[in-house]
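Researcher: Quick sanity check before group meeting.
Model: Go ahead. Protein one:
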Amino acid sequence: AAQQQHRKMGSAGATLVRFLLLASIVAGFAAHLAAGEKDCYDERDSVIRMCKWTIKKGSPYLTPDMPCRLEARKVDMPCICRVLTAADERIISPEKLVRCSREAGVALPVGSKCGTYTIVAPAPPCAHA
C-alpha cells in the first residue's frame, strides 16, 4: 500500500513539474511580447529585395537608390539587424546594410549588433584642401 501511495505522489509530482514548465514557457513568451519584440521578417525581406544591389555580398558597395532609401526609412532597421540570420549573411553584408541605413538617414546605435557585425562610428568626412 505504501508503494502504491508513493507511485501516485510520483505521478502527481511529474504532472506538477510539467505544469510549471509549461507555465514558465507561456510566461516567457508573454514577457517577450510585452518587451516590445516584434516580428520584422517581412520588413527584412523587403529591405533585402529593395536594396539588394547596395548590400549584396561579394560586390562593391553601391550608393543606395531612392526606392532603397525610402524603404530603409520606412522599416524598423534595429529590429531587422536583430533578426538577420547566418543564411541572410551569406547573401548580404550587415556592414553594407548599416552603411546603407546611415546613407538613408537612419542611424543605428554604435556598439549594437547588426547580424554578426558590431556597429562602429562612421568615418569622419574627408577634408578637401
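Researcher: Fine. The other one?
Model: Protein two, sequence then structure:
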Amino acid sequence: MAGLSGAARARSASPGSPPVLDGSFLLSPLGWLMGVQAVLGLLVWSLIAATTYHLHAAYGWVMFVSLFFWILTLLFFVIYLLQLHQKFYMIPWPLLLMIYNAVATVLYITAFVTCAAAVQPTSWRQWDYNRRAAASFFACVTMITYGVSTFFSFRAWKGLGSNAATSQVTDHA
C-alpha cells in the first residue's frame, strides 16, 4: 500500500469504487507466504488426487484439509490483493487471519501426520508411493508456512513491531 497515493487509497477504500490492485502486497511477507501456501497446497492435493486415494480413508482427510485451505488461501489472497479488506473495515482482518492461520497449522499437522503414516513403501503401485511420499513432504512444508504465517499474523494482531510514536503518527495522519 506504500506505492499508492492518498487519493488512490481513499478511492480503493470507498464502498462504490472498483477494487484497486495492490502490487506491494505481493512483496510483503503476508503476500509472499500466501503465494507459497497456494503453490504448496496445490502440490499436496494434486499429488494425492493423482493416486488411488479413494481406496484409503486417511487420504480423504488429507484431500479435505489441503483442498479446503487451498481454496480459502486463494480467497484471502484475492481479498488482500484487491484491497477488499479495506472496504469491509468492520471485519477484524488481523484477528481473522491469525485464527485462520492457526487453525490451518493445526489441521495441516494432522494431515501431514496422517499422510506420512499412511505411506506404504510396499505399495503395489510404485508411482502411488512416490506421489504420496512427495505429498507428505509438501504437507510438512505447507504446515511450516502456515505456522510462520500464524506468527506474523499474531504480531500484526497485537501490533508488535511498532512503538507508541509510530502508531500515534499513523493514527492521526
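Researcher: One line on it for the slide.
Model: The chain has eight helices and no strands.
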